[in-house]
Amino acid sequence: MNTHSNKPVDTIRDGSLNATIWMNPRENGNFYSVQITRSYKDEHGNWHETDSFSGSELLRVARLANIAYSEILIYRAKDRSSEQESA
After folding, report:
1. Whole-angstrom Cα distance, residue 22 to residue 33?
2. What is the rounded CA–CA span in Å between residue 64 and residue 60?
3. Cβ contacts of residue 22 below 8 Å, gap of 6+?
4. Residue 41: beta bridge partners?
5. Collapsed DSSP state (helix, strand, coil) of residue 79
6. Of 3, 2, 4, 22, whose CA–CA distance to 12 is shortest?
7. Are 65 and 18 in contact (CB under 8 A)?
8. CB 3.0-4.6 Å disulfide test: which of 20, 21, 24, 78 passes with 10?
């Protein structure tokens, strides 16, 4: 379930798997979180998302988490650079 009211800063896809990166502004700087989901169609052709994965999908989930972590490091570095420029 998506409890964020803002738009994601990035979505990394691998087939039906998605790692969505969210930025949450805080007083002491931005906080980033990741939501990993799998999209699927039900028997009526309607799209849904779940956070449940099969054993064969776990390595892909780990790969997405690794990529998302690297992207967050880049966002944090940009945040620090922006803070230094505005100081």
Report:
1. 5
2. 6
3. 4, 6, 8, 9, 32, 33, 34, 35
4. 47
5. helix
6. 22
7. no
8. 21
For residue range 37-61, what is the model confidence (pLDDT) as tens digits? 999 999 999 999 999 999 999 999 9
Confidence of residue 87 (pLDDT cuts 50, 70, 90): low
Q: Distance between CA atoms of 30 and 22, rounded to whole angstroms?
A: 10
CB 20 within 8 A of CB 34: yes
Residue 76 to residues 29, 34, 71, Cα–Cα distance (Å): 9, 14, 9
- Look-up of token digits 């979505």: 11
The two counts, helices (H) then strands (E), for the chain are: 1, 4
- DSSP structural state of residue 57: G
- Biggest distance spanned by C-alpha atoms of the chain: 56
User: Is residue 66 classed exposed, middle or buried when 0-12, 13-18 and 19+ CB atoms within 10 A define those classes?
Assistant: exposed
